[in-house]
Amino acid sequence: MAVSQGRKPSRWLNPAGGYLAGYSHTLNPYSGCSFACSYCYVRRMPVGLFRGEPWGSWVDVKQLDEAAFRREWARESAKGAVSVFFGSATDPYQPGEAEHKLTGRLLELMLERPPGFVLLQTRSPLVTRDAALFAEFGDRIRVSLTIETDDETMRRRFSPSAPPLAARWKALHALREAGVPVQAAVSPLLPHTSEFARRLAESGARIVVDDFHRGDGSGGRRSEQLGMRELYRSLGLESDYAPAAADRFYERLIRRYPGVNAHFSQEGFLP
After folding, report:
1. Omega of the bond prior to 191 within 30 degrees of 0, cis?
2. Which of 8, 26, 51, 270 falls between 20 and 30 A from 205, CA-CA?
């Protein structure tokens, strides 16, 4: 894994649109992602396609000029409440964050002039490090922790470099116990056991269910290009590679567990 000092961004806050149209901005503290999930839609975006190095083999740490960020944050805040999807093209708590602490510092700077809302998207147990910091945001933040299956064999098949599921479940419970607004992001829904819905419901967390076909930002085209259908076929599960699979899972979840705080696809990620 090559971790290097990246460029100093001309701007940190980029206008949101498309699938993330409910937000005013996106923010990504790193370029690249060491978790290298096989289905990651960023693989089909320019940052993934034209680097010339395999996705997951490199990470650039963006250079933070705190004074410049404060000016940019103040300028955007003056236009109205800033709502940020934090981590739209990278994981803000990937392993490099333990050393560089860039995500944590950006959040601290935001608190100087609190945002309207921040959704922090990650699959890393490292996120629990900043539980006390999240508490300062109150209900202006939601930590969205990806748990796309409860089957560790499938996790290793689809995302072998990502954190083990047991550590993610532990992080989900720790954040909830700390009073942090948290959700389990079943995104995208992967092959799972018959106990997955029950375990999600019993976690007490907010839940959002999504799939390859509606959640990759291109109506499923990026996922097709990444070979997801072929991967399902190789597992003997091609029939599960269809929108109906996530629909059935979601319907079963809300039918069997009345009162569960569950949402579907784009609506579930909105502020």
Report:
1. no
2. 26
Q: Which domains does the chain have, with CATH numbers?
A: 2-269 (3.80.30.30)
Half-sphere CA count of 232, side-chain side, radius 13 A = 19
The pLDDT of 9-17, averaged and rounded, is 96
Beta-sheet pairing, 58-61 with 83-86: unpaired
How far is 76 from 113, CA to CA, in rounded Å?
Answer: 11
Tokens in use for 173? 């419970």
CB 41 within 8 A of CB 211: no
Tokens of 250: 């979601």
* Overall pTM surpassing 0.90 (yes/no): yes
